[in-house]
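To the wet lab folks,

You asked to see what we're planning to order before we commit. Fair enough. Below is the target structure as C-alpha cells, and below that is the sequence we designed to fit it. If anything looks off to you, flag it before the synthesis order goes out.
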C-alpha cells in the first residue's frame, strides 16, 4: 500500500499548510504595504516605527518569534481575560498563532519589496494624474499601485517561495500541518526517509506550481510594457 495508507493524512496536512501559507501572505502583504507607505511618508515617527519593525524581524530568528507569539500570547490573553469576566483558561489556536507570526515576519520583508517597487514608479506618473484632476487616492489606486505591482512581483514571488517553506516551523506548536503529519507517520512506521521524502516532494510541488503561476503573472503584467518599448 502506498506510504502504508498515510497518503490521505499527508494530503490533509498539505491542505492545512497551503491554507496557512495563503492566510499568512495576505497579512504579510497588508503589513508590507503599510510599512512601505510609512517608510516613504514624511512623518519621521512613521519612518522610525517601520524601520524598527524591519530591524526587529531581521534580528530575531523565525523560530524564536513563533514561540514568543504562541506562548507569550497565551500569557497575555489569560492575564486580560479575568479582567473581562472570563474565568476559564484560553488556549491560542496554533493555526491563528502560525498565521499571525508568519504574516508578521514576512510583512517586514515585503515592506522592503513594496518600498523599492513604489520608488521604481516614475514620479511623473503621479504628477500627471494629479494634473489630470485625480485625487491622491485615485492616483495611488489607478496609476501608482498597478505599476508598483509589476515591479514588486519578483519580490513577492521570492518571499512567497520562502514563506511556504517556512510554514514547517508551525509543527513545533502542535498544528497538524504537512510536517507534523509526516513526523507522525514516520514515527509510526519507523520509515522516516520515505515520509520525509514524500513531504519534501509535496513542498516541491507547491513551489513549482507557484513559480509557474508567478511567471505567467509576470508575462501578463509585462505585455503593455513590451509593446510600449517597440
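Sequence we intend to order:
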Amino acid at each position: 500500500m502506498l506510504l502504508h495508507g498515510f497518503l490521505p493524512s499527508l494530503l490533509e496536512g498539505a491542505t492545512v499548510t497551503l491554507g496557512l501559507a495563503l492566510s499568512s501572505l495576505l497579512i504579510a502583504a497588508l503589513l508590507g504595504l503599510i510599512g512601505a507607505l510609512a517608510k516613504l511618508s514624511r512623518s519621521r515617527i512613521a519612518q522610525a516605527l517601520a524601520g524598527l519593525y524591519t530591524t526587529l524581524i531581521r534580528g530575531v530568528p523565525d523560530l524564536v518569534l513563533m514561540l514568543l507569539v504562541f506562548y507569550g500570547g497565551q500569557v497575555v490573553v489569560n492575564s486580560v481575560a479575568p479582567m473581562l469576566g472570563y474565568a476559564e483558561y484560553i488556549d491560542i489556536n496554533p493555526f491563528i498563532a502560525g498565521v499571525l507570526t508568519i504574516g508578521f515576519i514576512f510583512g517586514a520583508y515585503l515592506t522592503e519589496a513594496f518600498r523599492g517597487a513604489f520608488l521604481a514608479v516614475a514620479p511623473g506618473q503621479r504628477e500627471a494624474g494629479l494634473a489630470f484632476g485625480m485625487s491622491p487616492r485615485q492616483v495611488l489606486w489607478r496609476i501608482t499601485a498597478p505599476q508598483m505591482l509589476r515591479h514588486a512581483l519578483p519580490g513577492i514571488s521570492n518571499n512567497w517561495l520562502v514563506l511556504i517553506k517556512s510554514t514547517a516551523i508551525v509543527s513545533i506548536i502542535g498544528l497538524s500541518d504537512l510536517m507534523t503529519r509526516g513526523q507522525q507517520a514516520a514515527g509510526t512506521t519507523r520509515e522516516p526517509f520515505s515520509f520525509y521524502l514524500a513531504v519534501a516532494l509535496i513542498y516541491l510541488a507547491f513551489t513549482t506550481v507557484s513559480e509557474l503561476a508567478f511567471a505567467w503573472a509576470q508575462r501578463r503584467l509585462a505585455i503593455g510594457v513590451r509593446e510600449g518599448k517597440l
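Structural context that might help your review: The domain at 2-221 is CATH 1.10.3720.10 (MetI-like fold). Residues 192-229 form the longest helix (38 residues).

Thanks,
Computational group
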